[in-house]
Design a protein that fits this description.
The strands form six sheets. A six-stranded antiparallel β-barrel has the order 3-4-5-8-7-6. It has three domains: 3-18 and 160-252; 23-153, no CATH class; 257-359, no CATH class. The chain has 360 residues and is α+β, with helices and mostly antiparallel strands. It is flat and about 70 Å long. The protein has helices spanning 11-14, 44-56, 193-211, 238-245, 322-331, 336-348; strands spanning 3-10, 15-17, 23-32, 74-82, 92-99, 110-118, 126-133, 144-153, 162-164, 180-186, 217-219, 224-229, 248-252, 257-261, 266-270, 274-275, 287-290, 303-306, 320-321, 352-353, 355-359. It has six helices and 21 strands.
C-alpha cells in the first residue's frame, strides 16, 4: 500500500495506553432544602430514604404519614468521573446530579452525604462520599445539577496498564507468559490492519535494539499493538512508554471513507473516495449559471437555468470523486437530508467506492 510522505504522526497522537481511561462512580441520594419543588409526599422512593435518614440521626418517624406534605426533598442519581490518569484518596471531583422522580427543580437544594460506588457492581466497595449544595448550570433543565468538587475519594484509583503475558486476552507464540507488556490502542478513526502494522513497525524499528530482542511490538488486531516491556524497565516503565509515544509512525494512505453525522448534518470525506458514473436526479431543484457573453457585461448577464449539473466533465470512462458530487449538490443548494439520502442510495446500488459510516 502506498505511503504518504505527509502523514507521519506521533504514536501518542493516534493511540491511547490500555488502562488509561476514565472511570465512573455512581450512587443515589437525597437533595433537601427545595422550595416546594421536590418529589412530594406521594412519591415513596423519595419519602422512604428520607425516613431512613431520620432514623440514622435518632429522629425516627412512626409512619410515612408523618412526612406528608413533604415537598422539599428529591431523590436523585449521582455520577462522578475519575480522570483518565487516576485519582488518590482525598482528591475532590465534580458530581453530576439528576432527578428521576416528580421533582420540578433542584434549585437551591443541598445533597445529603451519599456513598459512590464503581459502576460495575461486581466491585463491592465505596470509593467516595458526595455532598454539598447543588448548582443548576442550565436553567432550561432545572432537574439536572452539578456539585463542584462535591465527591471526596476514600480509595486510590490507580492505573493498571502493564500486564503479564498470561493475563492477556491475545494468543500468539510471541507472547511469553512471564514477560510484561503494555498495549497501545488505536483510536477508532485510525483503526485498521494497515495502520496497526505501521505503528508496530515503527516501534520495532526504533526500540528492538534497546530491548535486545528481535521483536518488541506486535499488532495483534486492527486496534491493539502489544509492546514488550524489557525486564530492566519493568520497575520504571515511564521512560519506556515515553519513548514509544514520541515515535513517528509513517501512516499508510488513508482509507476511503464517508462519515455522516445525522445530528449535526456533517459529511466528512477522507481518502480517495470515488463514485462510478451515475445520474442523480434531485426533486424540483435548479441551479442558475451565469454566462456573460464576450466581452463580459456584468450589468446585463445572460442567465441560464438548469435542473442538473455535470459531476464528471471528463467523460464517463473514469470514476468521479465524492467531493465532486458534494460540490455539485452544494451548487444545487440540496438540503443536507437529501444529500445524505443520495449518498446512501448510491452506496446501496454499489456505485460508492468508499466505506460509508453513520455517526448518530
Amino acid at each position: 500500500m502506498p505511503l504518504l510522505a505527509d502523514t507521519s504522526v506521533r504514536v501518542a497522537d493516534i493511540t491511547q495506553l490500555k488502562g488509561q481511561r476514565v472511570n465512573r462512580l455512581v450512587g443515589m441520594g437525597l437533595v433537601t432544602g427545595l422550595k416546594g419543588t421536590g418529589d412530594g409526599d406521594d412519591y415513596l422512593p423519595a419519602i422512604r430514604p428520607l425516613a431512613q435518614a431520620l432514623q440514622q440521626f435518632a429522629n425516627p418517624v412512626t409512619t410515612l404519614d408523618d412526612l406528608k406534605d413533604t415537598k422539599n426533598v428529591a431523590v436523585v442519581m449521582l455520577s462522578a468521573q475519575i480522570p483518565e490518569n487516576g485519582a488518590r484518596e482525598g482528591d475532590a471531583i465534580d458530581v453530576q446530579v439528576t432527578s428521576f422522580g416528580a421533582a420540578k427543580s433542584l434549585e437551591g437544594g443541598h445533597l445529603l452525604i451519599a456513598p459512590l460506588v464503581y459502576h460495575d457492581r461486581a466491585v463491592d466497595r465505596i470509593f467516595a462520599f458526595a455532598s454539598g449544595p447543588v448548582r443548576i448550570p442550565n436553567k432550561a433543565a432545572p432537574t439536572s445539577a452539578v456539585i463542584e468538587r462535591g465527591a471526596v475519594l476514600e480509595e486510590d484509583v490507580l492505573l493498571a496498564f502493564m500486564a503479564a503475558g498470561r493475563e492477556l486476552p491475545f494468543t500468539s507464540a510471541w507472547i511469553q507468559p512471564n514477560e510484561h507488556y503494555v498495549t497501545f490502542m488505536l483510536d477508532e478513526a485510525h483503526a485498521g490492519w494497515a495502520v496497526a502494522a505501521a505503528v508496530a513497525e515503527a516501534i520495532n524499528s526504533e526500540l528492538k535494539l534497546s530491548a535486545d530482542v528481535e521483536r518488541v511490538a506486535l499488532a495483534v488486531d486492527t486496534r491493539n499493538i502489544l509492546v514488550l516491556v524489557p525486564s530492566f524497565q519493568q520497575h520504571d516503565p515511564a521512560p519506556w512508554i515515553r519513548d514509544i509515544e514520541v515515535l513517528p509512525a509513517l501512516l499508510p494512505e488513508v482509507e476511503a471513507r464517508v462519515t455522516i453525522d445525522r445530528t449535526t448534518g456533517t459529511i466528512v470525506v477522507t481518502g480517495d473516495a470515488r463514485i462510478s458514473p451515475v445520474i442523480v436526479s434531485q426533486k424540483g431543484l435548479t441551479v442558475t449559471v451565469l454566462n456573460p457573453e464576450p466581452p463580459p457585461d456584468l450589468l446585463a448577464p445572460k442567465l441560464e437555468t438548469k435542473t442538473f449539473v455535470a459531476v464528471d466533465t471528463e467523460g464517463a470512462q473514469r470514476s468521479s470523486r465524492v467531493a465532486d458530487l458534494l460540490e455539485a449538490l452544494n451548487r444545487l443548494q440540496v438540503p443536507i437530508d437529501d444529500r445524505i439520502a443520495i449518498l446512501t442510495e448510491i452506496n446501496r446500488i454499489g456505485k460508492l467506492h468508499a466505506r460509508l459510516m453513520f455517526k448518530e
